[in-house]
Design brief:
Elements lengths: L8 E12 L2 E12 L3 E5 L6 H7 L10 E11 L2 E4 L7 H7 E4 L10 H11 L5 H14 L3 H4 L12 H13 L5 E5 L7 H14 L4 E5 L3 H7 L2 E6 L2 E4 L2
Parallel strand pairs: 3-8, 3-9, 6-7, 7-8
Antiparallel strand pairs: 1-2, 1-4, 4-5, 9-10
Amino acid sequence: MKDMAKSPVKIRTHALSFSYDGKPVLRDTTAGFREKSITAIVGPSGSGKSTFLMTLNRLWEEIPNCSMQGTVEIHFDGKFRNIYGKDFAVDSLRRRVGMVFQVPNPLPMGIFRNIAFPLHLAGIRDKDLIRSKVERMLKTVRLWDEVKDRFSDSALSLSGGQQQRMCIARAMILEPEVLLLDEPTSSLDGVAAEAIERLLVNLKKDCTILVVSHYLDQVKRIADGIVELREGRIVVGG
């Protein structure tokens, strides 16, 4: 892992605690994450890794009986912004902080429409611009040659590895500054997992990446820093 001491901090949390149905999941977590790097979030099952990611894009707000205390700040537009502040809209946050889940989640529509979907949600209607962005992202995730003649095919017809690369393309098409990934290779075979790893290393030049992983070898291969959670507390950070 490289020395990240000179990289500025992109994300910082302070005294972050989280509970579900009154049961503590995160306890007083304070951490900083360097920009344009890959930080691995590691720890035993149930230690709060996935929950920690959800606090960084407010995804947990759609789950009932949850509560959070503390602060989460992300450096946007030249300054740190409290993403839970009243002046920070959640839809703006989701455009700037992308998310990829453990199991690929293609939408029930064609490959092209899957990747273009966030552009439509953002109100972009220029067909040439949409096509250009979709093509660029497909090439970025090295999926272009595999799907360029089958845009209208259902995304469900893709292999697991192809679906996950498509989901990463969809998450990246709005050019987010942060990309969160929750065990993105756990459901894939070795070849597909290796392709995702290479992709993430390539993507970090454009965004800050946090990835939950259970695989020590994977962490050694791709991570610039590690944060370890145990029983909801950070025991290793950096």
